[in-house]
Write a structure and sequence with these properties.
This protein is α/β, with parallel strands linked by helices. It contains eight helices and eight strands, in the order βααββαβααββββααα.
Length: about 230
């Protein structure tokens, strides 16, 4: 069922939109699809993942300027889910799967997930459907709707790779910052990812993290980015 292909008409019915709106979204690059001859086709699993990301406030394709969807004051404070020990300052992995395994190992070592093997598989499964690297050197990995009971409590861990990893980013460039999110949909405010996307909407904000010399400095840069977002809001 999840692997079946849909036409414009079928997708419009699935999303409860008119066909003209669907065609505009896909031609603008907002919806994931492929053109076969002169006909568009859509994989249901990719559409479902796209819908997950929309619910979380993350637009995974061709986004120019991520914008806050909700007032920053209404969003979950990062210090409730992110601690200094959650920072991996120097990742060793040189491949996509290697990076996922390294980050999942950190989450497991911190006792944030119940089963490291499950977490690795769930992250890879989600990546195979649609890459989480949005470009600008960052990626937001998560396992939405995939056995959230395996997550001990909502968390974020951050991995930094100064050399960068080929993570199938939309802009084709290496990914340097990996935000891995352990989400429990019923317990976590959905604007969380929108907040992160807004905090790191510019290359300068990414470069500040890359320039930080210690885990504490990285943590402080993240905290400062959150404060700037509150001020601008």
């Amino acid at each position: 069922m999840d692997d079946r292909l849909m036409t414009i008409k079928q997708l419009a019915g699935y999303l409860n939109l008119n066909e003209r709106t669907v065609l505009r979204l896909v031609t603008d690059g907002a919806l994931p699809g492929v053109k076969v001859g002169n006909q568009w086709r859509f994989r249901k699993a990719m559409i479902d993942t796209w819908l997950d990301d929309q619910m979380l406030g993350v637009t995974p394709r061709l986004i120019d300027e991520p914008k806050p969807v909700v007032s920053a004051r209404a969003m979950l404070e990062l210090d409730s889910c992110f601690e200094l020990s959650h920072v991996l300052p120097e990742m060793k992995a040189a491949s996509k799967n290697g990076a996922i395994e390294e980050l999942a190992a950190l989450a497991a070592d911190l006792g944030l997930v119940r089963d490291k093997t499950w977490f690795i598989g769930a992250l890879i499964e989600r990546e195979n459907i649609m890459p989480s690297a949005t470009g600008n050197g960052i990626a937001f990995l998560h396992t939405v709707r995939r056995n959230p009971q395996q997550v001990v409590r909502p968390f974020m861990v951050l991995g930094r790779s100064k050399d960068g990893v080929d993570f199938d980013a939309l802009d084709g460039k290496p990914t340097h910052l990996f935000f891995v999110l352990g989400l429990k949909i019923n317990e976590l405010h959905l604007p969380w990812l929108a907040k992160l996307a807004s905090m790191f909407a510019t290359r300068e904000s990414v470069d500040r993290v890359l320039a930080a010399r210690t885990p504490k400095a990285i943590f402080d840069v993240i905290a400062a980015s959150e404060r700037r977002l509150k001020t601008s809001d």
